[in-house]
Design goal:
Mean pLDDT: 85
Strand content: under 5%
Structural class: mainly alpha
Helix content: 40-55%
Distance between the termini: 43 Å
Number of domains: 2
Radius of gyration: 29 Å
Low-confidence stretches: none
Order of helices and strands: HHHHHHHH
Number of strands: 0
Shape: elongated
Number of helices: 8
Length: 194
């Protein structure tokens, strides 16, 4: 019996063993013109097998790169695109630096803190006041996602003052939007009966 475990490992298993065998056959063709013709035919087949790649910009370039990857970068054909190098393919991705600053109020999240920082940096005026109002309304909505009961405007204004270190303030008597109205319209999930 010929099991897949005893066969050659596939570099790009999403194309399957038949496409891999066609790529392997390409490298055995002696005539360069015939090899180039077969490579273009194979690119067409690969494109038909993966129509989702057509949504990607320059998907033909991706297919040509895949054919070289599947041949272990040994295929000698005329590509309309630069041939990728094995070093760039095997290169490990750079590590992503994670933020190390703690989030003051986790129910608001880091994005609220960044928006508050941007609002602090703005010049005084009508735009800064409008942004502060929007931030406070967004804070109330975020708070309601964690606490379904109720959220007082005073709590949100106090938290805004703490997060901005007293640099952002709403006008006295400002009423925040009634965020619960937005959540009342949300449909509840009802499982289907089978």
């Amino acid at each position: 019996m010929d099991y897949n475990t005893s066969r050659k490992k596939l570099n790009l298993p999403e194309y399957g063993r038949n496409i891999q065998q066609m790529v392997d056959h390409l490298s055995t063709v002696e005539d360069r013109d015939e090899r180039n013709r077969l490579a273009r035919v194979l690119i067409g087949i690969m494109g038909n097998l993966n129509p989702h790649l057509r949504d990607i910009n320059d998907f033909k370039h991706k297919l040509w790169d895949h054919i070289f990857i599947m041949s272990d970068f040994k295929l000698d054909i005329d590509s309309p695109y630069p041939i990728p190098s094995q070093e760039t393919y095997e290169e490990k991705p750079k590590t992503v630096p994670y933020p190390t600053q703690p989030i003051t109020y986790k129910h608001y999240g880091r994005s609220i803190e960044m928006m508050i920082q941007k609002a602090i940096e703005m010049e005084e005026g009508q735009q800064k006041e409008a942004l502060t109002q929007l931030i406070a309304n967004h804070m109330k909505k975020a708070y309601l996602m964690w606490n379904n009961d109720s959220v007082s405007d005073e709590d949100v204004i106090r938290d805004l003052n703490v997060l901005s270190k007293g640099k952002l303030a709403l006008a006295p008597g400002t009423k925040l939007s009634d965020s619960r109205e937005a959540f009342k319209n949300k449909r509840k999930f009802i499982p289907r009966k089978k």
